[in-house]
Amino acid sequence: MAEDSSPLLEDADEDFEDAYQSDAAVNNFGDKNPLESLDLDWLLSERLGQFGRYQKFIYTLVSLPAVLTAMLTLSSVFTTIVPPHRCYVPVCDSPIIPHYKDAETLGFQNYTIPLQSDSTMDSCHRYKEVSNSSCSAKSFDPSSQVPCDRYLFDRSGDMKNTVAMKYNLVCDRKGQIDLSQSIFFGGVLAGASVFGQLGDLLGRKPVFMITLTQTLVGGFAMLFAPDLIFYNILQFITAMGQVGLFQTCFVLGVELVGPDYRVFCGVVIEFFFVAGELILAVLAWRFRDWETMTLAYMIPSLSFLFLYFVIPRSVRWLLAKRRFLEAEAELQKVAKYNKVPPLTSHDFNKYVKEAETEVRESFVDLVKRPKLVARLLIMFLCWTVVAMVYYGLSLAASNLGGDVFVNFTLLSATEFPGYAISYFGMQYWGRKSTMIASLLVSGLACLVSGFLPASLSGLHTFLFLTGKFGVTAAFATVYLYTSELFPTSVRNLCIGLSSTVGRIGAMLAPYIKNLGADKHEDWIPLTIFGTAGIISGLTVFLLMETKGKPLPRTLDEAEAQETQTSREENH
User: Fold this and answer.
1) Which residue from 147, 349, 402, 425 lies 20 to 30 Å from 44 (Cα-Cα)?
2) Distance between CA atoms of 506 and 3, rounded to whole angstroms?
3) Would you say the pTM of this structure is higher than 0.90?
4) Helix or strand or coil: residue 160?
């Protein structure tokens, strides 16, 4: 697909090209190029348009891959479902097409498989054979049990085929499910760090193609993994790629818009993520086979490869790398498709930043300041709790009573109001207040839900969904809030560290959500999620409000701003 082949890009007039060529002086400024000091936000606000038709078109395109990343991130809700299962009994089960229900239908379960306390078949053991001459009671010893060496699964339930069934992740291997999910989030941790740095080094557009290719190759290869080890390796690689893809798309979309639309665009891409979750639920319900389901969303995602020929290079990255001719070309393209006059040398000389003294500060300087260290530790806690509770509740859809597809759909749908409340809360109420309210609502809902009696299943589900709603709002708030709490000199570093620490919470989520599952004590994970949410919400009271305040450039400004805010609140 050519770069100008889309409908939006076809209506350019030839006069624009003439104007662009006639202003050759823009590229011949002598020793200093005016783009070196260009204030891009000011240029977008006053001249090009903060969110014109070109930005809307590109933003929509780069948001589409978020649909794929959502399905890859949460597909394990369905791929790790473990249906009822029992041992394969060699003497009695068909060697060609054995079925789970044959033990009951043919009547040999009474003398081949032990019963559990609830009168159901033991899922992990069978009686030892003393003879293989016939399928009869005399061929088995009811006083001696042996573990299964092969399993038969009930394929009439929610899913007919899952990863757990393919690799027999049951009985003494059921812990491998939690490990596999944690490995995925380990890949997310690694990918967020590696591709974040690569995006700054190589540029957003090349990293977009790298991460998309890695995601597609890994996603398809997982289908052919011969064993769980290879599957987990490929899952790790895929997780790295998909988080790098999401981050790159997020940055590409936000960097091209003006300051007044940055929060809006940062939130709206999450709606594409939620759309991916809902599509995943439909595909899982329709096919009920993890391999078919995976192919159903991976094959259409190949079309994202063509986006490389449409999406622009990041103007901000080009300016930072002093590639001014390429930056100018991209800016002229914005003007062209936003239907504003082409930029001239006068524009580049007009929209320049005020001279600023360069400040060199490092993380070492930050740790010498107790107030800022405390601020950073609080954000570490918030990121960890938010990631742990968000993914813990999302992955627990199969643990709720009722239909897993309906549960997952409801849990996903609650994210729409969660992100919306976060946006309006940050815009009109404040970052601090929105963060506190989101965490406390989520924490209290989870805590109360955990101690409700089983008879109040409807209320339990409502509070469970409320917990997901609250933590979703917190997830949408924490990124912007963190970026505004720390000065320019260490901002990216603090965001990166906070995000990395938060991934640890995501890695713990699969283990926490299953605590007490064997004894049907669902209150244990909900109590942990709820308590953690309340504690982290209360710690945010110790932070300052950042809404309406200029971003601090130095560590001194960050500390002074907190002191000034405290005085204002006291008065």
Assistant:
1) 425
2) 38
3) no
4) coil
Q: Is the pLDDT of residue 15 over 50?
A: no
> Given the structure tokens 């509070």, which residue do they identify?
463
| 92: helix, strand or coil | coil
| Count of other CB atoms within 10 angstroms of residue 345 | 15
Cα separation of 433 and 416, whole Å? 20
DSSP structure string for 36-55 = GGB-HHHHIIIII-SS-HHH
Instruction: Tell me how far apart the alpha carbons of residues 412 and 274 are, in angstroms, rounded to a whole number.
Output: 6
Q: Which residues of 119-129 are buried (b: 16+ CB within 10 A; e: fewer)?
A: eebbbbbbbeb
**Amino acid letter, residue 454:** A
Given a contact cutoff of 8 angstroms between Cβ atoms, the answer to whether 480 and 431 are in contact is yes
Q: Is the dihedral of CA 230, 236, 239, 244 positive or negative?
A: negative
In what helix (H) or strand (E) does residue 219 lie, and over which residues does it extend?
helix 204-221
User: Are 408 and 461 spatial neighbours (Cβ–Cβ below 8 Å)?
Assistant: no
pLDDT digits (tens, 9 = 90+) for 366-398: 888 888 899 999 999 999 999 999 999 998 887
DSSP 123: S
Q: What is the DSSP-derived secondary structure letter of residue 519?
A: G
Quote the CA–CA distance of 72 and 108 in Å, as a whole number.
41
Pick the residue with more confidence: 47 or 31?
47
CA–CA separation, 497 and 481 (whole Å): 14
Are the beta carbons of 392 and 533 closer than 8 angstroms? no
CA distance 325 to 313: 12
CB 101: neighbour CB atoms within 10 A? 14
